[in-house]
Every structure is written in structure tokens, then in C-alpha cells.
Records
---
Amino acid sequence: FFFKQKTAYEISACLVGSEMCIRDRRRVHGGTYGGMRKPSKFLCLILKMLQLQPEMEILHAFIQNKDYKYVRALGCFYLRLIGKPQEVYELLESLFVDYRKLRFRKADGQFEIIHMDEFVDNLLRYDVYCDIALP
């Protein structure tokens, strides 16, 4: 009846596979959706990052990634969860000039288009975003 906890090495393989999911055609971010409040893949990736606890250099690389906007969004959300307020504002304010489109899944399961600068603004202004209470 013993429960074996996964190591960071075992989880990292899941994270790499999940990052590939971010880059496929069905890119989306959001919180929970549907009648059963199913978590989006974006929230599952946030949970994996919380389990792995990547170093700040890796997190900075996620945020500065210009090729994959959803990797950047993942890094921003994770930083908002774990970062110190001054560091969060310093890193995220520079992203207000990023106007790329993101697909956001609302609670009813419908999609809406928002831009990266709106996403960052929502992270900085709201206490609850993507159905997660932010510190």
C-alpha cells in the first residue's frame, strides 16, 4: 500500500511531452471548463511546473521565448504564482508590447481570442485568473 512519489526526472518527461501539446494546432490556455469543471491542459502544465520547481534561469527563458507564445504564457503564469511582486512586475511589464493572439477557453467551454498584453494585464490586475487564486 505504499505510494511511490515521482521524481523530477520522471515528471520532466511528462512536461516535455506536454510542451509539445502546447505547440500543436489546438493551442489554448484557460482555467477549468464544462459542467464537471475539467482543468485545461494549461492548468495541468502549471501543476507540473509547480512539481518540478524549475530554476529562475529556466523560467526567464520561458518568458523571453519569442517563438512559442504559449510557452511564454506558461512562464508568465508560473512566475505570477511563485515570484516576488517586484520581480513579477519588472519581468512582465516588458510584455505589454507583445500583441500576439492567444486562444482562451472560458468556463462554458467556448473559446475567445485575447492578446498576450491582455493576458499579462489580467495576471497583474486580478486576484483570481484561470480559476486560480493568485498570491
---
Amino acid sequence: FFFLMIRRPPRSTQSRSSAASDVYKRQVSTQSTWGLFKMAAKKGESSSLISIIGDEDTVTGFLLTGIGERNTKGETNFLIVDSQTTAKQIEDTFVKYLRSPNIAIVLVSQQVAERYLRQMINEYDQVVPTILEIPSKEYEYDPKKDTVMQKANRLLYGKEIE
């Protein structure tokens, strides 16, 4: 015999003493935070993507997590940089991601940033999309080279990363 007992969940109330009230409060708080993020994002866009520019292993790893996107025009939110990729392709893709209304974060492997995009990253002053430099499999991450980390360190501690 199998016995299945179906219990009715408690009714949600807004009284201070109920567990349902705590859940309700957390939901409101989460929705408010998400609302602030959406306001900071491009005007009225409902979907926000992460884009990535990096070596094949790094990009593949992120694509396996599900961030890959190909729209109806065949445009993607990722660029694999290899020996065949030109500096112009990298720069044009980077600028396209920065101007795209549905991209909230641009991930760039630090090696690519250092080699091709450093000046553009240094001149960039917007909050959204946010540019984040990430390590790659073959090159170690160096926070001293990361412009965003340097800016954050200056704001928080008043000095460069040593």
C-alpha cells in the first residue's frame, strides 16, 4: 500500500508572526532589487544577457553553463579569439556588445583585454553593460592589470592594488 497525504499549505498572511509573512517580505525585497537592476539596465529591456570574448576553452566553458545566445539574424553573444581572429574583429565585437540594449555584462578574458582592448576598457565609464575581466586557462589573472579592480580599489581604499 502507498499512502499519500496531501496537506494544504498555510495561507499567506502579512502578520509579523507567520513564516509565510517572512517569505512574503523576502519576495518583495527580491522584486525591489530586481526592479532596481532593470532600471539601471537599458531602458525597458526585459532580457539581459551576458556576453563573452575569450579563448576557445574559456568561451566553451561559459557556453556549457547556458549563456550562449544566437538571435534570428545569426548574431551571437560570444566571440572565440584564436590565431585567425583579427584585432578589428575583436574591437568591433566588443563595441557591438557595449551598444547592444540586451547585454548587461561583458566578460573579457584578461589576456584578450590586455592585448587588444585595454585602451577601450580604460576609457569606458558606463555602469551597464559592466565589463569584467576574467582569467583564462593558460594565463593567470592579475588584478593589477584589471581596470575595474583598480577603480574599485581606489574608491574603497584610496590607493592602487599593490
---
Amino acid sequence: MTNDTLVPKYDSSSRQSSAVAATFNLTATILGGGVLSLPLAFEKCGIVLGSLLMVTSLIITERSLNLLCICARISGATTYGEVGKAAFGTRGEYGISMILFVYLMFVLVAFMILVQDIWCSTLEMILNKQEGELDKKKVLLVILMLMTPFFLQRTLHALRYNCYIGFASVPILLLALWHHAATEPTNKPVLLWTSSVSDVLFAFPMINLSFLCVFNVLPVQAALIHPSRRRMQYVINGALGTAFLIMLPFGIYGYLYAMGHTSGNILNNITSSRNWRTGTLSDWFFFVGRLGCGLTLTLAMPLVVLPCRDSLLEILDVTVNGPHVVVPQLGGEELPLLAVPDTETATTYTKLEIMESDTPPSTTKQRRLDRNPWYRYLTTFGIINTCYLVAIRVPGVDVIWSLVGSSMAFLIAFILPCLCYLRIQQSNRYVNDESRFWLWFAWILLIVAVLAVIVCTTQSILRLLLL
């Protein structure tokens, strides 16, 4: 038996996402712009070592997502920021929301760069125009205007159909890469295992970044129908497993296509798709794959905008209206929120109380700014305009990935969930074998992730200085 604090309640009518829809939602978040850089990671570390690093990243990402979901269940939090509040007080909520907001802004800028590059080249092919003839700034602006209704949605559930369309289009480019590898095998030596430590340190953050979906896992849990721990586990495993089965061959076949000249965006290596009308079947596949990838990234942008906007509203609401989670006081000391057996203290709550109410008693306050649609509209347009102005000035997506992959990605995906869980469990007197396992795992992952951040960030900075 668990003492989970679910907000909304377990059988609330506000929970509208089925397990399938939730899985596709999370999968679409993963299959973003990071997948286009995986061939470069395989070029750096080799096919065998790259595959092992992907399996490693898959396992630690799955464990870390579950760790964050457990933190939310123990504390009654519904957002990453509220988990930080439960663990470290108001500063924790504010700090995590700020880190998440900055990270998602970087990701959105990267997506915009990829979208404008892909759609400009695709439209030039369709309209028989010369390369560079279309204005990338204008193309991106038109796309953002067309996507405005999706950006203004209030919940991820409203974007569930985006996931189906995006998920259906991603494997097309993989099919094109596979067809090229099968019909035009390379005669160049294939790297299986690199001996360069610096190349591994460059590639591993890129692989971790491709799996990153931590900013959407709690909204997915909050919208899931009947969100038992096992059911949420199925959603996480299904999303990560599906993404892994697509991304692993994508990285391998993308590397086999470009070999030693692999770009940070594999589509930059694919130029034969300009002959899609009169060329070979492979050329046609690459054109359709490029079109599908552009559609996928375009539909993935709202999946980044919504949690980015929620983080910003959380920061503003904490500043204006105070913290969302009212932490119990014991002897004048502020304690984290915990769901412990009802016989322990007067400030705890039972499973029955949770089932009867959408919010745990005297613990969670709804964001008031989020209720006002005007605040939602203004913050959304502010985020989109800011990212657009940055995206049209950044020379390439490699600059963005190098800045966030080796530092903020590790921090958000691994270090902060571990710190929050260790802090929450420190005050939790309800301990069993499962919680002991998670304690050991959190300590091990925390130590390894901190070391990885130091080493990988140092390596990334050195690479940038040498460019």
C-alpha cells in the first residue's frame, strides 16, 4: 500500500488522458530536434559504444523520471517547481521553475532554427527555387503564426493529436536512411568503438539530451486517467522504449550515410532530396523524410511552449501571490510536504481524504495567474517573440545543443530529481524496502551526474574555445 497524494484526485473528471495518449504525448516530446544530432554522436564514439551509451541513457532516464513522479506523489505536487517547493521551500520552487524556464527557452530556440532550415529547403524543392532564395526569417514567422492556436492551448491533453501526426512522420526519415544503407552500402571503414575520451564526453551529453522529457512527465501524470504507480510506469516505459527503437537505428543509419562528415543536423548532409521528382527511390524517400521531420518538429514546438509558459507563470505567481504549496510548520520550522500514515501527525492526510478532494487539505493552492486567459496569452506571445528574435540570429543549432547538453540537461534530468527525493525522504517517516532502494539509487545517480556535469561541461567549453 502506498500513501500517494494525487492532485487532481485519482478518479477526478479532470483527468482525460488515456495511457495510450499519455504515452504518445511523452514520445512526441522525446522525438524532437535532438534526434537529428544522434548520427554525429555515433560518428564520434562508434556504433557499438554509441549503442551501449544509448542503453545506459535509456535506463538512467527511466529511473530518474520515476523518481520525479514519486516525489510528486509523496508531496502532492503537480509541477516540477512544486516538487522543489516540497523539498527545499519557496526558494526551491522558484529556482527549479527558473532553471526549467531558461532550459526550455533554449530548446525552443533550437527547434525554431531547425524548423526554419528544414522548411526553407523543403519549400525551395517544392517550388523549384534555388537554394537560399527564400527568406528564412519570413518562413519561420509564417509558421509561428499558423501554430498560434496550438501555442495558446492550456493543457497537453489538448495537443494529443499533434503527437499522433508527429509520431507517424518521424519513422519516414529513418526508412529513407535505411533504404540508402541497404541499396548503397558504404565502402569506408566503419568505427565501432572510439579510443578518444574527449569524443565520448562530447557524444554522451548529446545522447542524454535526445531522451530528455522530464519537463512534461508531471503534466502527463496529472492528466492520466487512474494514475496508479504501475500505470504511470507503463506510460514512461512505453514512451522511452518506443523512442529508443526509433532513435537507435536512426543514429546508426545516419552515421552510415554521412560517415566522417556527419553534421550536427543530419538533414544538412542530405542534398540528394532536391532531385525527388526525377531522382531515385532513395531521393524520394529522403524528400518525404525531410517533409515529415519538419512536420514533427513544427508540431513538437507547442509541447515545449506549454511547460515553458507554465514555468514562467509559476515564477510570476510565486512572486505576486506567494508559494503554491503551503508547507506545514512544526515548532516554527518549515517542513517538506509528505504523505505519511494518518496516525503520525495532525498535518498529514489519509488516502480517503485524497480520494474525496482534488487538493490535499491545506497544502496546494491553484495558480491564480493561470486561470486568467490574458496572462496565458501575454506570456505565450512573449516567449514566442523572444525565441524568434534569438533564433534568427544564432548561426546554427550546434551552438544551442553545446550550451545546454552538457550542463543544464544533466542538472534538470538527473541532479535535481535526486536532490528533491533525498530531501523529501529525509523527513519522511514512512520507509519501506522500495524507498530504501530509491534512496540508494538517488545517491549513486547524484554522485555520477555531478561528476559528469563537471567533466562534460569542461570538455564542451574547450571545444567551443577551439572553434
